[in-house]
Amino acid sequence: MREPALNPLKPPVDASVLLGVVMRSQPTVLLTLRTAHLSTHSGQIAFPGGRQDPGDADAVAAALRESQEEVGLDVSHIEVLGTLPLYVTGTGFKVTPVVALLDPAMRLQANPHEVAQVFEVPLSHVMNPANHCRHAVEWSGVRREWFSMPYEDNHQKRFIWGVTAGILRNLYCFLSADPD
Predict the structure, then answer these.
(1) Fewer CB near the last or first residue (10 Å), C or N of the chain?
(2) Is-above-0.90 flag for pTM?
(3) In sequence order, what DSSP letters do the residues of 81-119 get, joined into one string?
């Protein structure tokens, strides 16, 4: 599993995301499309989540709070399984992925200030390594690498990449014992 290096010029920010598996007959992963006006990661596909607040008891509490704020996900529909190892981003975030099972009876309401859309992608799609595309670019003398997992549903193309794809790739590696 690969993690980008932290920017040494600024202290890392603790963040948490909810990697929610919706327990449908064919399990899915809950994702969001961030609104275009946000200052960071605008217009990108993401898990519900964000920065940990001082009032959050821990990373799990932060992920649950952020999920409630962003998509209206009530904790009564969440069964937390645990966390994956930290995912450190090149933009200075230390992200704790909180893995949970979600009741398909949940009622979601996107916060229009943060989330443009809420949608689900089949777990089988993101766990299939044939859908994991590797990318690399040279940027300011540093080679940057990342994954993407393109997905199309109802004729809508979705480009899952960056941190979200990296965390899903780590989940795949963890479940399949694939070290890459």
Answers:
(1) C
(2) no
(3) EEEPPPEE-TTSEEEEEEEEEE-TT------TTTEEEEE
Q: Are 58 and 97 a contacting pair, CB within 8 Å?
A: no
Give the chain's domains with CATH numbers: 13-176 (3.90.79.10)
Torsion sign, CA atoms 180, 148, 70, 15: positive
Q: Which of 107-144 are b and which e, b meaning 16 or more Cβ less than 10 Å from the residue's Cβ?
A: ebebeeebbeebbbbbbebbbeeebbeeeeeeeeeeee
Type of residue at 93: F
Task: Write out 34-58 in H/E/C secondary structure.
Answer: ECCCCCCCCCCEECCEEECCCCCCC
Nearest CA-CA partner of 166 in 85, 79, 62, 110: 85
Query: For 75-126, what is each residue's pLDDT tens digit?
Result: 999 999 999 999 998 788 999 999 999 999 999 999 998 898 999 999 999 9
Q: Indicate the SS3 state at residue 76.
A: helix
Query: First vs last Cα of the chain: how many Å apart?
Result: 5
Closest CA to 17 of 54, 58, 53, 50: 50
